[in-house]
Amino acid sequence: MPNKSTLRSLYRTKRKALSITDLAHASAAILKRVVIENRIENGLIMLYLDSTSHHEIPMEKWFAAFEKQPICVPRVVNTNGQMEAVLWEKGTRLEPNKWGIPEPLSTPYINPQNIAAVVVPLLCFDQNGHRVGYGKGYYDRFLSRCAPSCKAVGVSFFDPIEKIDDVEPTDVALDMVITPKGVYTF
Question: Does residue 54 register a pLDDT over 60?
């Protein structure tokens, strides 16, 4: 089975190969499952903000899907891997960080214990709920600070692989992954 580094490279390439049309259709199918099937908990939701270079679901689509729920978004606060949640409201000012990912400039931070679900970015995932992210560990560290009841929800344009070889003890497994074709629970 492949390791995270190999998978990260492979799935970045696969994602970049998606046409704009394919990406739009896959994003719409994922969001439809989220909204119609009510797959994410009520309560405070943490959504990731997209980077156009990562070919993610556009953030405005996420915000529209959860317009009736309180939303928080991540903000990297240091290069040691610490990320905090900041309340997002319409009009919240965003600035790109050093990776080109928009972040809110506002504070205060939200207590991670108060978050019902965190939507986690990923490149691929396996049949055990482990994921390959972008390789910095920010979400694993953040999720470890959340309440045990907080749901870690991944979204993927691809079906699961069998197994990720180099899962580490600090990797936080997902509770659910939503894909265009279905929902996987762990």
Answer: no
Nearest alpha carbon to residue 138 among 81, 100, 54, 84: 81
pTM: 0.89
CATH 3.40.50.10420 fits 4-185, yes or no: yes
* pLDDT interval class at 53 (50, 70, 90): low
C-beta separation of 88 from 104 below 8 A: yes
Across 40-128, where does the E strand assignment appear?
45-46, 71-76, 83-88, 94-96, 102-104, 109-110, 117-120, 124-125
Give me the amino acid identity at 113: Q
Question: Pairing relation of β-strands 94-96 and 151-155?
Answer: unpaired
pLDDT at 98: 79
Higher pLDDT, 165 or 49: 165
Q: With contact defined as beta carbons under 8 Å apart, do 164 and 127 qualify?
A: no
Q: pLDDT tens digits for 99-123?
A: 778 888 877 789 999 999 999 999 9
Q: How many CA atoms lie within 13 A of 104 on its CB side?
A: 24
| 167 Cα distance to chain centroid | 18
Count of all residues that appear for the chain in the document? 186
Per domain, the residue ranges of the chain are 4-185
